[in-house]
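Quiz preparation item.
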């Protein structure tokens, strides 16, 4: 069994919080269990991490269940379980769904220089087509000092500029604290580079919850970034934001293994034989080939 999780006063703080619905929860896990999870983070240079290193985000993430230690595995299993999702749904008053694939979630790590520009998360999950609705972030760096930075900022929306407005709230990544928030119009991030000493890391566990899409909701399947103040007018940064924002971007990926599609979300799958396409379909075609092989297709 997983040790108790404390949702605290989330139910009555959440809806009225500014600049968007959110709640901060202290002592989310039992302290001993939180230390177990923290100790299981892969070393900074481990191959389990996926590295982001560009003008908008400098961080490492890991959403591979095979890379998780026992305590981390238990925690993420419980946080994605029907029982916990029901508790969270009742607490927040919205019918939520888990994302056991941990798209964008799992473990996050920032070293010195780490940052994440102010952004809004993807609106529609690329595989389930459900709406991203709730973020749960749990901080697991026991000796973190406020002077190192790394606080999670929450910005109000500026409807005129269609970007972030004023910074309204800022939460230090205090040991075993959690922030729960509604992502629908949530500009958030940590745009100032972290200044922690070598060997110290901002550690967080991230779980995202989905809901049926609301009428008129955004259809973005990618995050929407804003330039940091010092990047305003920087042509390279603005071009990078435009590239990430463009839904027309395309990649052709050639593989024999459906398992690779656990890490990408294809729109179309084609089977090639002798230089020509012999069958086409959606992601379900790749799953069929992994299950039944190619014999029935190329015969």
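Solution:
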């Amino acid at each position: 069994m997983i040790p108790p999780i404390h949702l605290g006063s989330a139910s009555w703080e959440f809806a009225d919080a500014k600049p968007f619905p959110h709640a901060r929860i202290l002592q989310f896990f039992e302290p001993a269990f939180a230390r177990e999870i923290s100790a299981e983070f892969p070393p900074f240079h481990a191959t389990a991490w996926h590295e982001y290193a560009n003008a908008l985000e400098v961080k490492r993430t890991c959403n591979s269940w095979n890379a998780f230690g026992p305590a981390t595995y238990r925690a993420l299993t419980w946080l994605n379980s029907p029982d916990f999702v029901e508790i969270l749904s009742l607490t927040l008053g919205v019918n939520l769904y888990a994302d056991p694939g941990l798209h964008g979630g799992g473990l996050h790590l920032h070293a010195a220089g780490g940052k994440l520009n102010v952004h809004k998360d993807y609106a529609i999950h690329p595989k389930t087509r459900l709406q991203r609705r709730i973020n749960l972030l749990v901080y697991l760096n026991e000796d973190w000092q406020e002077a190192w930075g790394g606080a999670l900022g929450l910005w109000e929306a500026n409807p005129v500029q269609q970007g972030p407005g004023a910074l309204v709230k800022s939460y230090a990544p205090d040991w075993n604290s959690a922030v729960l928030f509604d992502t629908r119009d949530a500009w958030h991030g940590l745009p100032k580079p972290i200044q922690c000493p070598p060997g110290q890391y901002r550690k967080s566990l991230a779980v995202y919850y989905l809901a049926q899409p609301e009428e008129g909701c955004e259809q973005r399947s990618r995050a929407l970034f804003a330039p940091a103040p010092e990047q305003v007018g920087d042509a390279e940064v603005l071009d990078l934001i435009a590239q990430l924002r463009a839904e027309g971007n395309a990649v052709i990926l050639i593989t024999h293994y459906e398992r690779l599609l656990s890490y990408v979300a294809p729109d179309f799958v084609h089977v090639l034989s002798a230089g020509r396409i012999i069958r086409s379909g959606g992601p379900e075609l790749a799953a069929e080939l992994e299950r039944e092989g190619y014999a029935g297709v190329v015969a």
